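Dear U.,

For the methods section draft, I wanted the exact inputs and outputs in one place so we can describe them consistently. I've listed the two proteins in the order they'll appear in the manuscript figures. Please don't edit the token lines directly; just add comments below if something needs changing.

First protein:
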Amino acid sequence: MRSLTCIVCPIGCSLEVDDSSPDNLSVTGNKCPRGAAYAVEEIRSPKRTVTAVCRAEGASGIDLRVPVKTAVPCPKEKITALLHDIYKTKIRLPIKTGDKVIANWSGQGLDVVATRTFS
């Protein structure tokens, strides 16, 4: 039995997941169907949105840090490798919010995008 707090909506239901049979997870405590779906995904394949900064070189040659995030959640076990690649990436300015800094990272269909505009 595992306990989780649902983060899908503001209610924050306390969920209990019976994971004794991995093929048939039983979720209780959810007040909506989204809570049950969240619990099943969190047990089987946890994912997180990753935020970080990457280096950028401006026109004046000054090094800046550009905030970035994943466009879709990243599998939890791949976050360390993703952060390693983000931190070694250096982009050239200008860049706009939403521009891809890393496209289709490691063939995962996961894009890393800028979250701020720099000229």
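Second protein (the one for the lower panel):
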Amino acid sequence: MHYLDIELEGINENGEKNNFKLSDFKGENVILYFYPEDDTPTCTLEAHKFRDALAKLNNFARVIGVSKNNSDEHIDFQTKHNLKFILLSDSENKLKNAFNEHKKHISDIERTTFILDKDGNVANVWEKVDVDGHVEEIIDYFSKR
């Protein structure tokens, strides 16, 4: 199954549960960032960095976070940290496994960000993301296009 067709439960920008497919976002660039777990120190810091730059990022793409957490945990995480972007639940690793083919390294996806173009193709990948400066790298990537 192609990654665009994998359906996952998640929450929208308003904390409402919904099912999503990446094909729902065709016509938009997407910043798809995989992170290990809600409400852990580094994952929270990363979410805050996306939150704080969201107005600028939204000029380029839609931000979508993906972790193994379920939708109820995502709602708590989103509410607690005022996150206004989609969070998807990939508890069975369906999406993560589908994206492994786009990685240069053999290791499993940990903290990885993919840019999907308006046709849903992988346009760029950051592996083993260092949270400090990462959002700025994404803004720089889009600014140069």
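Candidate sentences for the figure legend, describing the second protein: The domain at 3-143 is CATH 3.40.30.10 (Glutaredoxin). The first strand starts at residue 7 and ends at 11.

Thanks,
Y.
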